[in-house]
Amino acid sequence: MLISIFFLLWSISDLIIWISPDSREVMFFWSIVNLIEVVISTLTLYFAYVFLEKKDVPFWSKLIYFFIIGAYAIFLPTRLNITGFDISNCEAGQGPLINFFYAIEILNFLWLIIYLVRKNLRPEEKKLTRAFSIGVILFLASFSGANLIGSVFSLINPDSPDNWKILQYGLFGMPIFMASLAYLIVKFKAFDIKLIGTKVLMYAVIAMIASQFFFIKASTNFVLTGVTLVIVVVLGGLLIKSVEKEVAQREEIENLAKNLAKSNDSLFVANEELKELNKQKTEFVSIASHQLRSPLTAIKGYSSMLLEGSFGPVEEKAKGAIDRIFESSKRLMTVIEDFLNITRIELGKMKYEMSVFDLGQVAQTVVKDQEPNVTKRGLTIEFKDGTNNHQVSADIGKVTQVVSNIIDNSIKYTPSGWIKVSVENFPAGKSKTKEVVRLTVSDSGIGLDPTAIKKLFDKFVRADDAGKTNITGTGLGLYVAKQIVESLGGKIWAESEGKGKGSQFIVEFPRSTSEAIHTEQKIEAYTKADFDKLKKK
Question: Model's pTM, two decimal places?
């Protein structure tokens, strides 16, 4: 804005110098035109820095230029600036102060060139900087350069009346400068045109109202115009502040959006790194689990053979120790198997051998296998089969593991009382033709509160106070069960009326319309991804 105002003053001064017949007017405007030009070149340098750096110049820089321009302005009314008036050429005689003017102009131009070259060497916002640099350099070169070239011509041929005609070409720099700013506004949205337009409109309205004072003759009209001008100035100021506030809020939102985008990019990179680390961790656990399973299998096998007497009679005291070795290795094998299942699931390598079988028969077999463990804990277990017709299409080995895991979980967390296992057929939702097979394992154990149920099937999660009843749990069994059941197209969930009121674990599979086939007859082996594709078909 200041550049435009001072350029307008320079244009008016230059116009008066060329067309005014009054030598006093020519002398006055000739004495100040160089000061206006210095101010314009300094403001251009200032504008370039603020626009490209998005911040104000240091205070010491402002102070230095204030003293330089102030010192120049002090000597304007002296003979150091204008020595006299040449009537023959209609020109003012330049004093030694003109050299100070040239020094300032050359300093501003060189400083601007050096700054813009260094700025263009940086990669960020290079297109914007290049477009701005071209406009500013052409403006200052034509504006200040015309004066410098005219001075050179005057030194070479002081008697020529055409020495200063080149000053008229200095006007061409402003349209170029405005064109570059227009390009920046359209291409890069460098300036807020809404705010600029509001200011220009208000200044124009204020100028038009103020101009009425030159034509008013009646005192009443003078007062009314003055009141109108004050109201417009106040309301205009409020309007401009409102627009500035809106622009500031929009810029803040845009900055927040940019920062959010950067944060999202950083989070994406971090997430990818975490995925890679998690994959490496999973692969390590898989390798370690495989390495541990081999010696444990040998320990379990040989301890079982010792207990069975395969190597001859064993003393009773030794039998107790061997039995502890066998049970401990058995528990470790269960934990390792859970770890292996997790790694297979997370790596997408869990295979499912699909077959059609009766879920009731599987549950009944698991219950019979668990009876010795139940009796040993002083509990009772009951099995109920609704219709003896509960065929499902799934992986019988994996489903047996799930059922065994759920029943074993109830045994662990039931200090005393009973466990009930039932298998029934139910309509699938509102459908009367489709059915599901539901396995329910109920117990009179420690129960669950609602908050624990929500996260019970997460990895490494156990119910509150579960450690007081069973210290051997790892929080992996139910997680593995959920992954297997859902991969096979089923559902699993838990229900409880609260702590101390027992719990229920329910598993559902779609009932197969095919006849049950022998459990040893496998259809095909699938990974989870393959099985998902098969279900879609």
Answer: 0.45
3-state DSSP call for residue 420? strand
Phi, psi dihedrals of residue 466, rounded to the nearest 5°: -65, -30
Q: List the alpha helices (DSSP H) in 309-389.
A: 316-346, 359-376
Q: How many CB atoms lie within 10 A of CB 524?
A: 12
Other CB atoms within a 10 A radius of the CB of residue 290 amount to 13
Write down the H helix ranges in 381-465: 396-412, 450-455
For domain 351-536, give the CATH number.
3.30.565.10
**Per-residue pLDDT tens digits for 226-283:** 888 788 788 877 877 877 787 778 778 878 888 888 888 888 888 888 877 777 766 6
- Residue in the structure block whose two tokens are 């008229």: 168
DSSP H helix total and E strand total for the chain? 15, 10
| Rounded mean pLDDT for each run of 10 residues along the chain, 537 residues in total | 73 76 80 85 83 81 88 88 72 80 85 84 70 76 70 65 60 64 59 58 67 70 80 80 77 83 84 78 64 76 82 81 81 73 71 88 91 88 83 90 89 90 82 80 89 80 56 70 89 89 92 56 48 49
* Phi and psi, residue 392, nearest 5°: -135, 160
Please give the Cα distance from 5 to 12 (Å, whole number). Answer: 11
Please give the structure tokens belonging to residue 511. Answer: 């009932």
* Domain residue limits, the chain: 2-191, 351-536
Contact 92, 26 (CB under 8 A): yes
Of 392, 431, 429, 419, give the one whose Cα is nearest residue 509. Answer: 392
Yes or no: say if 461 and 455 are a contact pair by the CB < 8 Å rule. yes
Contact 519, 357 (CB under 8 A): yes
What's the residue count for the chain? 537
| Terminal Cα-to-Cα distance of the chain (whole angstroms) | 69
Q: Which residue has the tokens 């067309």?
A: 19
d(CA 439, CA 431): 19
One-letter amino acid identity for 411? I
| Residue 196, CB-side half-sphere exposure with 13 Å CA sphere | 11
Q: How many CB atoms lie within 10 A of CB 417?
A: 12
Which residues are CB-neighbours of 49 under 8 A, at least 6 positions away?
Answer: 57, 115
Express each pLDDT in 457-502 by its tens digit: 887 776 555 545 554 556 678 888 888 899 888 999 999 888 888 8
Are 119 and 133 in contact by the 8 Å Cβ rule? The answer is yes
Q: According to the model, what pLDDT value does residue 508 have?
A: 93
Q: At 395, phi and psi to the nearest 5?
A: -95, 110
Residue 91 dihedral angles phi and psi, to the nearest 5°: -130, 150
